[in-house]
Amino acid sequence: MGIKMNLVAEKIERHRAFLHRQNADRPLFGCVYGWENVNRYTGDPAGFFPAGEVHFDDISCERFRPMYRSYAGKLDDSDDWLATLEPLPFFPWCEAAAGCAVKYTGKNFWSSRTIDDLSDERLAELVHRFRDRLKSLRESLTDRIEKPPRAAATWPEKYGDFIDYLTEYFGDRHPIGQTILRGPLDIAAAVMGEEAMILQMFQQPSLMTEFLELAGELFMLFIDVQTRYMHSFAGGFVIGTYYVWTPARNIRMQEDAMALLSPDMYRRFAHPVDCAIAAAAGWTLFHIHAAGLHHLDALLLNDGINIFQVSKDEGVELSAILPQLLKIQRAQKCLLLKGRLNRDDLHLIKSNLHPAGLGLQAVVLDENEAEEMRLFIDVNY
Description:
Elements: H1 5-19, E1 28-33, H2 45-48, E2 52-54, H3 65-74, H4 93-97, E3 101-104, E4 109-112, H5 120-146, H6 155-170, H7 184-192, H8 194-203, H9 205-229, E5 237-238, E6 245-246, E7 250-254, H10 263-269, H11 271-278, E8 283-289, H12 296-300, E9 307-312, H13 318-330, E10 334-339, H14 343-352, E11 358-364, H15 367-380
Parallel strand pairs: 1-11, 7-8, 8-9, 9-10, 10-11
Antiparallel strand pairs: 2-3, 3-4, 5-6
Helix pairs in contact: 5-9, 6-9, 7-8, 7-9, 8-9
């Protein structure tokens, strides 16, 4: 079952209005069942994939075909969103390409750092190796493009294979979107460990700046792959995970590790590379948690960010982040709020946030919750 194409044009008109913050009678709205982890895609996480270390050849398109077939059949096209399929959104693509070992715990995929004791001397060595790794990834990708077809040899190439695969088997029914790709700070935290990353920002700031620039290039290597392989949908492209149609190519960004930094540290080390990434597409969405909202002033200076996607995590009161949500709207940016929402939250949103340029993704556990959310929107807007 795929999206009914007669609904696409109507949805796209709403998405255009959202992107341009035009007056709207209500926000874009829809429900998603669970967060972006393995549980969302299978009812049996323990039996879904063998627990233990994950090797390159363990990840193949055919292996996950039953999962995609089952998941695609459950996608709902009755709301405002254009639901996408993405290359394994629960897999740490950038971290694996950076050299991190990956393991499956029986519940999810996790990466581990590449170095345990990051002394000043070893950081210089790490930066040198990372630069060489990036060069090798680029050369391999160029070789694969220019020469007769061969099997994927690197994680970015395998990412391209998944885009091709999803397009071939599902692209006539569903848009294919960018997977979850973690940003330069998250790559650094994965490679070095969070504490070591922060310590080296004080001890070796120039080397850390260089590493984050290289990590930004690694992120963009994946974006280059999807630019080459990803097909348009209804004259545009759809943002993976968040289901927003854009008239030009888009990028979905995140820097969860920014929550660990002070605003000054973020501006010094990560803001320049994040600005370069955000400017590389016609439309850029930045995903942020409540724990990172102390960086909002700096992020609002990033002209390349068009949409701020704020996740209301478990335990976060909407009233506590409402001032930041209002600031996003006052800055003439689109706001997409995602999370577990109750009726009090919806009343607070209705009373304080303007529906123009506003999107709501309610994370629900079952159809009863979803129907309650839909009913509120229908009655109150």
